[in-house]
Each structure stands twice: as structure tokens, then as C-alpha cells.
Amino acid sequence: MKKAILTASAAALALAASVGYAAARDQIQVAGSSTVLPYAKIVAETFGETFTNFKTPVVESGGSGAGIKEFCKGVGENTIDIANSSRKMKDDELKSCVDAGVKEVEEVKIGYDGIVFATDIAGPDWALTADDVYKALAAEIIVDGKIVANPNTKWSQVNPSLPDWDITAYIPGEKHGTREVFEDKLLVAGCKNTGAQDVIKAGGGDDKAVRAKCVAVRKDGKAVDIDGDYSETLSRIDSNKTGVGVFGLAFYENNADKLKVATVGGVVPSTETIAKGEYPVSRPLFFYVKKAHLGVIPGLKEYVEFFLDDQMIGPEGPLAGYGLVAAPEAERQAQRDAFAAGKTM
Amino acid sequence: MSDIALGSAGIAVARPRRDIGLKQRYAAERRFRIYGMLAISVCLIFLAVMLITIFSKGYTAFWQTTVTLPITFDAQVIDPQDKRATDPNVLVAANYPKLVESALIAKLGISPDDKPMIGKLKGFLSDGVRAQLRKIVIDDPAVIGTTRDVAVLASANLDSAFKGQIDLAVGQERRKVSDQQVAWMNQLKADGSMAEHFNTGLFTYGASSRPETSGMGVAIIGSLYMMLIVLVLALPIGVAASIYLEEFAKKNRLTDIIEVNINNLAAVPSIVFGLLGLAVFINFLGLPRSAAFVGGLVLTLMTLPTIIIATRAALAAVPPSIRSAALGLGASKMQMVFQHILPLAAPGILTGTIIGLARALGETAPLLLIGMVAFVADYPKTPFDPATALPVQIYMWANEAERAFVERMSGAIIILLIFLMAMNITAIVLRRRFERRW
User: Which of A49, A239, A322 has the highest number of chain B CBs within 10 A, making it the mutation to test binding with B?
Assistant: First the structure.
């Protein structure tokens, strides 16, 4: 009995201590943005089903920052191969990568995440600006140099050129990835332009607190969070003909027979204007590849090529079906060429 | 006071019944009983609400709608150039969805030339049919050229519609299933080829972006690996540590400090162990990310204090008379511990271990940091391959947008609850059966 126990514990200790794990990793490891996660999952799954000689990549979520941090830990089998990101890698992040030995990073843009404002097809034309959205939907806005609870009840009070409709907007719920774009590109921008930001800042608080105040959405029922998908927003617009809904571009285009799209800052949203960066409420989505792992981790090169293939990121591909705004043909080709040429940051 | 006063006076008076607050004390007891019952009923109500919501949402996940179709494995479609003898890749890349589509339009009586009608079939069946048929053909290439009845999965939306979870009264533009698809569904339902079957896929599939082909297979295996590693490592180390501390170590300041630290460790939030695992096992020792082995090591660290505390309590509960008797009969200290104390303490140790394991089974936080909260589709062959765990799978499904994942999430919770209940019942049975009272 005692010998058995002693041997067992000794064996267990030896197992724990002798971490001579040497087998080569044969599975791609990806981590990062939760906005990119659904797209990466679809590609990983289809990749595993198409290339039966490679394993299905493992995709972790956890956020762009966390993914890039993990990515920049170094080169080697116990570090990840790809970091998904819903924003560009920052310079100091790239520097930390290089310092840790990840000298060559390839940037791949997979497409865009863009949102549009749309109303019922029978309604008048809409031309919105970030300021209008901020003044209509923020919890507190600036009136005569003072921050007050939002007094606007009609769009025409916000901007006389807008229709005389009661304010009802269906916006992405807080757990949506697109909520961040909505906050950054509209509410924060409007907060800044109308001067509210300076007043809030003068009232004290750090940048984070100021931002939180700027992006706080009114809770009096005029801005409705939609946690479901865009079809729920559409059905709300159907039942409330004077409602304004926020949609993904792809969804709007598929339902253009029911919806009229609003311009933002004078720009009509389309794949072209989003891809060119003219339309403000969008952001490009990226992933970053560790060049040192190409050719070492089996399937990594094929995975990236497969991701960039038109059958994945093209306008007819499954990712577009899930809400990705496909980049224009030339840009997709440029991404493929850049990857083939091994261009690094 | 009053006794002394009475004594000094020397007069025997009929003493009035002393007010000893009997009434209040009984009332207090009654009140306390009511509070106790209220407390228990609050717990029971919460438990009932939780179980009812989970079960009412989740029981449907154990059934999955399939469509049984006579599929002709047409060599013209699978291998138009007849190269499969020389190039095995032909069978991998063949156009399997086409076979299913042909079978389905024949079954529904749609003309093969009616393209708009065929277009409406999109999203009727699962995209998982490609992998399903490919497996059939690769396992048995002789099937090419024959016709066989195959039960293929309906898509998640059709599955929801079939189970009555989609309100068909609203207009078709507001739901994911078109009126035409509902009509086809009813047609197939009437002739019996569309039916619900027990969803074995929920237990065997790995993660997937399609609800109908996602399951907990990888999570179950991952959890199993981790529990095994925790058992193999934590039990011997924990028991050895507690025997030494309880029976052999001198009681001095050092052992006091160790004891305080062990008790502290038991209360440390589990995410801290995850951070430790990331720093030591992955960054320093270079173990692979997302692997069940690392998860097992982290959970071992987390479970050790629980096992040590339970074991020490069990050892201390063995009466000193047993020790004295063993020593008095000439047993060495080692013999006393291993032949007398340890067998008597075993039920307590096992109970502690099982409860520790059950806690480890439900842990997600430490696994987040070592990369186990991930989309893993392939089965882990060894504990060093990427895997997930049961609670992680629940968390991942909870974050999904599609409605069909909600039902799967509740189904997964039911499975996890069943595992936990089985472990706790084992602990109780062991305790009842082997418990000794002195």
C-alpha cells in the first residue's frame, strides 16, 4: 500500500516535472477580436472540412488587445500564429512585438464592419451627421454651454432639415461589436463637435470618464437597444414607420426594397465609399500573421490564402452573409498579392 | 438577591411564579423556525426557477430534426473524370451537396429545371451534409453508384420551425423560414421522412459555427482529460502533504505558517491560478496553449488546498485511541499511519477529493487565460492537443447570436448538472457506506 502510494506520487511528480513536450504543433492557433471571431470561426470550420489533411484551426476570442498581446509574446510553438483585430495594430504594440522577437508581422485586411441608418422606404430622404445623432440620442447634450438631459423629442428639433418625426432609433445593443463603431464614430465625434466634450472635461474626470459620458445613450425609450440581429430591427421599422434603424450594410442591400438609407456626413454608404474610408461609420477588420510561423506550422499559409479567397471574403461568400462588408475587388486582390509577396509591416 | 432577602427575613411566603421569560423564549424559537423555513423556501424557489428555465429551454436540444432521403451516389457527380482510383483527393473535394439537392428536389417533386424554386431550398438542409456524405463515401467507396437512405440534418432554422419554436403566424419576411419551406416541411412531415431523432450529435460533434452540427464532444473529452490529470496529481500530492503535516511534522511556527497559507490558497479566486498557469506552464515551461494538460495542471493547483484541508480533517477525526493502540502493539509510526489511520480516514478523503473535482469541473475563469476558451472543432487525441471544457462550451454558446444556440446552451447546462450531480451523489454514497462513528 505505502509503496504503491509513494510510487504513484513519485510518478505523478515526475510527470509534472518532466515537461519534455517536444511534438511539433500541427494545428493553427488564432486569438483576438470577438468581432472577427464569428468570421474566423466560419473560415476555420470550412478550412477544416475542405483541407482534410490539416486540422481545424483553434480560434480563441478575448478581444483585439488581448489577442495582439498574446501574439507579441514571441516566436515559437507555444505562441499563437494569428491575431484577429477589429482595429489596426498600434505602433507601440508593433514595437513590443519586435522587442519580443516577432520581427516580421504580416497585416491582412479581411473587409469592413460598416453600419448604415435606414428608414421605411416610403419616408423622406435623410441626411444625418454625427452631430445630429449625438444630439438626438445621447443621454445628455450641451444646450447654451451647459450639459443637460437631452430635451429633444423630434428630429426637426435636432436639425431643422430633418423630418418632423418623433425620435425613435433602433441601435445595436451593448453586446454588439458594431456598438463600438457607433459610439466612436458618431457619439464621440458629435460630443466633440458640439463642444460638449470640453464642457464635460472642464467638469473634471479623466478621458475614460469623459468618453463614458459622451457615449451614454438616452434611456427614455427614444433609443432602443436591439440585441438580436438586423431582422429584428427591420421588423421594428415595419411596425413603426417613423423609426430609424441601424443595419449592417449587407443587410440593408438585401432589403433595399423595404428600406431607404440615410447619408451620413453627406456620403451615401456603399461598398466603395466604405472601402475608401469616405463613409464615416465603418472600420476595417484585420488579422495579423506571424511570418516566422509560415512554413513551420502546417496549414498556416493555406489558411490565410483560403481566408483571402473570394469564396470566403468575396461579396457572395459566407462571411458577407454573416455581415462582413467585402472589400472592393481590387483591394481583395491587393491583399492576396501582398500576402503572396510576403509583405511585412 | 431575593433569595438572600427571603432567608434573612425567615418568612415563608408563597413565592410568585418567577418571570423567566418563557413565553418570549418560546415565541423567539417559533420566530426562528419561521425564519429558517423562509430561508429554505427562498433557496428552493430559486433552485426551482433555475431548473425549470433551464429544462424548459434545454430539453429540446436533445432532439434534432433530420430528413431521410434516398440519396443516389452518382459517380457522374462525385467523380466525373473517373480518377478516384489514382487521386484520392477526388472523393474529398467532390460536390456532395449536389447529391443531396438532387435527392431533395426529387422527393419534393420539383422540376430540376425550375431554378427559382430550387433557389428557395437554400437553407433547408444543413451545410454539414458535405462532411456527412463525404464520410460515408470515404469509409466505403463501394457505395458510389448505389442508392441509399441517409438521414441528413435539417438546418437550424428548419429544426426550430419543426419544433414549433418559430411563430409561423407572423409574416414570412419576419422569420428565417419562408412559407414555401414551411409547406415543404409539412409535406415531408406528412410522409414521415422528416422527423425528430435523439440528438447524438450533441454529445459527439465538436464546436461549429452551425448550430445543428455543434456538439460538446470536444468539451466532454477535454473535461475528462483534465479531471484525470487532477485526480492523478492532486490526490497523491494532497494526501502525502496532509499526512506529513498532520502526523509527522513538528508543531512549530513554520508548520503554522504553512497551514495558514494552505487555508488562504483554498480561498484564492480561481482566475489567479489561471494567471499562474499562464506565467509558469506556458511562458516559462513552454507547454502548449489551449491544451487540456495545462488546464489539468492549473486545476490541480486549485484543487490541492481543498483536498489537503479535507484530508487533514479526516485524519484528525480518527480517535487517538487507535493511534495509541497501534503504537502500543509495537507498530512503527509509518505502519500506524498507513495500516490504521489512513484506511479509517479514506471515506473523508474521497469525499473531499470528489467535491474538489466537482468544483474543478465547473471552472471557467482559469481556463480563459491559458487559451482554453476557444473554438475547437477537432477531437484532442492526447491531453497536449487543444481542447475546451464543459463550462467553457456553455459560455461560448451563450455568446452566439443564433437562436438555436440558446437551446443547445441550456442542453449543455443540463449535461453539466447531471455530471455534477453524479459526482456529488457518489461522494454522499461513499460517505454513508464507509463512514465510521466512534
Answer: A49
Residue B422 pLDDT class (50, 70, 90 cuts): very high
Q: Which residues in chain A are contacts of B209 at CB distance < 8 A?
A: 38, 41-42, 45
Strand-strand pairing, A263-264 and A105-120: unpaired
The mean of the pLDDT values for chain A is 83
Single-letter amino acid code for the residue at B321: S
CB contact (8 A) between residue B285 and residue A50: no
Q: Which of A197-206, A235-244, B413-422 has the highest mean pLDDT?
A: B413-422
Q: Which residue of A has its CA nearest to B132?
A: A49
Rounded Cα gap, residues B13 and A84, in angstroms: 94
CA distance B434 to B438: 13
Residue with the bigger pLDDT between B426 and B10: it is: B426
Dump pLDDT digits (tens) for A183-238: 888 888 888 888 888 888 887 778 888 888 888 888 888 888 887 667 778 888 88
A-chain residues near B290 (CB < 8 A): 29, 58, 60
CA distance A298 to chain B (A): 15
Instruction: Kindly identify which residue of chain A lies nearest to residue B131, measuring between CA atoms.
Output: A49
Instruction: Say whether B286 and A78 touch across the interface (CB within 8 A).
Output: yes
Asked if B174 lies within 8 A of A231 by C-beta distance, the reply is yes
What does the pLDDT average to over B251-268?
91
- If you count them, how many residues does chain A have? 345
Residue owning grid cell 463525404: B134
CA dist list (Å): B322 to A1, A177, B218, B379: 19, 65, 48, 50
Phi, psi dihedral angles at B125 (to 5 degrees): -105, 160
CB pair distance less than 8 Å for B374 and A58: yes
Q: What is the CATH number of domain A113-282?
A: 3.40.190.10
Residue A292 has pLDDT above 60, yes or no: yes
CATH architecture of A23-112+283-341: 3-Layer(aba) Sandwich (3.40)
- Note the pLDDT tens digit of each residue in B314-326: 999 999 999 999 9
- Write down the number of H helices and E strands in chain A: 17, 13
* Integer CA distances (angstroms), A276 to A112, A186, A266, A272, A329, in order: 11, 18, 15, 6, 12
Greatest CA span in chain B, whole angstroms?
A: 127
Is A23-112+283-341's fold the same as A113-282's? yes
Chain A nearest C-alpha distance from B45 (Å) = 29
Q: Tell me the average pLDDT across B273-291.
A: 89
> Does the CB of B373 have a partner CB in chain A at under 8 Å?
yes
Residue of B nearest to A74 (CA): B283
- Interface contact B378-A50, CB threshold 8 A: no
Nearest to A217 by CA among A256, A176, A259: A176
pLDDT classification of A8: cutoffs 50, 70, 90: low
Amino acid in the structure at residue B221: I
At A214, which amino acid appears? C
Q: Which of A59, A77, A238 sits opposite B375 (nearest CB)?
A: A59
**What is the Cα A84 distance to its own chain's centre?**
10
**Residue spans per domain, chain A:** 23-112+283-341, 113-282
CA B89 to chain centre: 38
Residue of chain B whose alpha carbon sits nearest to that of A230: B174
